[in-house]
UniProtKB/TrEMBL annotation:
Originating organism: Zobellia uliginosa
Protein name, UniProt field: Repeat-containing protein
One Pfam family linked to the record: SWM_repeat
Highest taxon of source: Bacteria
Gene3D superfamilies named among the record's database cross-references: Galactose-binding domain-like (2.60.120.260)
Alphabetized NCBIfam families for the sequence: swm_rep_I
Length: 667
């Protein structure tokens, strides 16, 4: 049932602003004259409606001497009151009403689609008047858009002529076109059958949108089986698109099919939804390909022992066990085929598994696969039976040795040693082993240590986690070695290659993270909260050392300069957790410029101060050096880190690779 939203009950009174003639000779009379009207759409700029619905128009003027509403062809005046739930309003048409009405309020039925349907208002007044007509809303200024209408003097009267444009949406009339892939039109309306080969494509175009008054916005193409009852049809192609042109591929099955087009328009707040179905008056006859279905391409074994047999077309789903029709021979000796399945992501491949899998050593012998052609379920989607084939060579998978790559890493949290490999490791090879640690050895600070257990990392299968028999510390020198044989294998059954001794690098667990690398400009990770005198802090390229050393910065560095004995004050923009009673180790690289005469800099962790003294005998000017110290947090806090050189004297100090970590060095 049509939902009528446009009732006179919902008419919205337009804002009326009465003005005066700007002609100096005009004198406004004492009588009250104004002009006003409203419609079903109120102040909406777009006045749209669907066909066979009605809109209401009300003249609210005062002082008119003549008034007319004029409507175009395809519209009719209705006699009110009107129901809000009628399907059809034809019985309310005022017979012989013509196209002009002097009624103040009219109801107009629209029976013709036209985006420019004019409804004209003609009013005559004895006096001049003008008014402001709201025509929309300006979202930028958040205000009403006003169109000022003025009456025009014609003879002895003042005339207002105004045309309201109504956008009338027509009923959808579905139409279409079919073209071949060369772009040539197919006269499907005057032929019974379109003959196709399986996999052929046709271009379908929805022409319904060429009629701009109905404006469908969705197209559904359906190709379906032919059945007496629609409920029994089965779709082989079902495409729902916003676009009007689509290429349909007939590759689901062979046989005779019909099709339909459904052209739709979605409902809006003001316009009803509409759709029309067009039954395509032609049969699509899809025949099987003329070529044979045969084994095509290289047959190979995968790392998981699956033998992949490619064929020339996609296969229909298997409905029974066909393994007895296949045979695999190794050096002329049969290996029973246990299962045959389709590749779930490529229907043109069969997967064979053997009761006794192939081994890498089998690659030195001829390995072949055959199919006897005796099963009716092994067929293509277009129902061509798979041809028999004999002694097709199988490329045997030869496991690739597994190589150690990357840095061996020690985790502080659980003392796990992480070893990276170039292939994913098979956890099953560990669980099946009587001793998965076989072949591994370790040293801690030059003393042999046993490996207690190994496991594959849960988040990265290319990482092996080793645990030793003893507690480890961050400053321990640890090496790991491996000498075959061992039981651990890759997913592809590759064996671990010998490696080591490889040094293990401990996690830094730097509380500061990248902030201690000093790569961001001042004002980002670090702030200069105030310098006295010419004291300055900057992130800069490292200076060229006066004396070479094995210590070198890793990038940009922090420069704290106080040439006049004054000082900059640098502090992190973020805060970091420190726990009471926990010992923290601070490590950094430091360079003292040759002009430095100060003795130390203050380092603050929260409110806790530790001094970096550089008056020891091993401290040298003009040389990059490594510095470490520890402190015990006096209280639990979430605090900043601050560095401040100390006057008096000249301070010319550089820092890089600043690390704060829970102290885990060996006692």
């Amino acid at each position: 049932m049509r939902d009528i939203k446009y009732s006179i009950r919902f008419l919205f009174l337009l804002l009326i602003i009465v003005g005066c003639e700007d002609d100096d000779a005009y004198v406004a009379p004492n009588s009250f004259v104004d002009a006003a009207f409203t419609t079903t759409w109120g102040t909406a700029a777009d006045k749209d409606i669907d066909i066979n619905n009605y809109g209401s128009f009300m003249d609210l003027s005062n002082g008119t001497v003549k008034h007319e509403w004029t409507i175009p062809e395809g519209t009719f005046f209705l006699k009110g009151p009107l129901p809000t739930n009628a399907d059809n309003f034809e019985k309310y048409i005022i017979e012989d009403a013509g196209k002009v009405s002097e009624e103040g309020t009219v109801h107009v039925l629209f029976t013709k689609g036209d985006s420019l349907t004019p409804i004209k208002l003609h009013n005559e007044y004895e006096e001049y008047t003008e008014f402001a007509l709201p025509t929309g809303w300006d979202t930028e200024t958040n205000s009403t858009i006003i169109d000022t209408l003025k009456t025009v003097k014609k003879g002895s009267v003042w005339v207002l002529d105004y045309t309201l444009i109504i956008d009338v949406y027509d009923t959808i009339v579905a139409d279409m076109e079919i073209r071949n892939m060369a772009g040539n039109k197919i006269d499907f309306k005057n032929q019974d059958v379109i003959d196709l080969k399986f996999g052929d494509q046709l271009i379908f175009e929805d022409l319904s949108r060429n009629n701009n008054t109905s404006r469908p916005n969705s197209t559904v193409w359906t190709i379906h089986t032919i059945a007496e009852n629609k409920e029994d049809e089965e779709n082989i192609i079902n495409v729902n698109e916003e676009k009007t042109i689509d290429t349909l591929t007939f590759n689901k099955r062979i046989g005779q099919f019909k099709g339909r087009l459904i052209s739709k328009r979605e409902r809006t707040e003001t316009v009803q939804a509409d759709e029309e179905t067009y039954e395509i008056p032609v049969i699509f006859n899809v025949a099987a390909l003329d070529e044979a279905l045969e084994q095509s391409g290289e047959v190979m074994e995968l790392a998981d022992n699956t033998i992949v047999v490619p064929v020339s077309s996609k296969l229909a789903p298997l409905t029974e066990d066909v393994s007895s029709h296949f045979s695999v021979k190794v050096n002329g000796v049969k290996r029973p085929v246990a299962t045959v399945a389709q590749n779930p992501t490529n229907a043109a491949q069969l997967w064979l598994t053997l009761a006794t899998p192939l081994e890498g050593d089998d690659a030195v012998n001829p390995v072949t696969v055959s199919y006897d052609g005796g099963n009716a379920t092994l067929k293509s989607i277009d129902e061509r039976l798979l041809e028999a084939f004999t002694d097709v060579v199988v490329e045997v998978y030869v496991p690739v040795p597994v190589l150690r790559v990357g840095t061996a890493q020690k985790q502080t949290a659980d003392d796990a040693i992480l070893l990276q490999f170039d292939q994913e490791l098979d956890p099953a090879s560990i669980t099946a082993s009587a001793d998965a640690t076989m072949g591994f050895s370790a040293t801690v600070n030059g003393v042999a240590s046993g490996v207690s257990s190994v496991e594959v990392d849960a988040t990265d299968p290319s990482i092996l986690k080793l645990y030793l028999n003893e507690e480890l510390y961050r400053d321990d020198e640890i090496t790991i070695s491996y000498v075959a044989p061992g039981d651990i294998r890759s997913i592809g059954a590759g064996e671990l290659s010998d490696f080591g001794p490889d040094m293990v690098v401990a996690d830094e667990d730097n509380i500061l993270g990248d902030v201690g690398m000093f790569e961001s400009a001042i004002g980002s990770d670090w702030l200069n909260t105030g310098s006295t005198g010419t004291g300055a802090a900057s992130i800069t390229a490292p200076p060229t050392p006066d004396s070479p050393s094995t210590v070198a910065p890793s990038g940009n560095v922090m420069h704290l300069s106080a040439p006049d004995g004054n000082k900059p004050n640098t502090i992190t923009s973020g805060t970091y957790p420190f726990e009471a009673g926990v010992v923290y180790r601070v490590k950094f690289k430091r360079y003292l410029g040759s002009t430095t005469t100060t003795a130390f800099a203050k380092h603050f962790f929260g409110n806790q101060q530790v001094s970096d003294n550089w008056n020891d005998t091993e401290d040298e000017l003009g040389k990059w050096q490594s510095v470490e110290f520890t402190f015990t947090a006096a209280s639990t806090t979430n605090g900043t880190v601050r560095i401040q050189p100390v006057p008096a004297g000249i301070s010319d100090v550089y820092y890089d690779d600043y690390i704060i970590q829970v102290d885990d060095n060996r006692p």
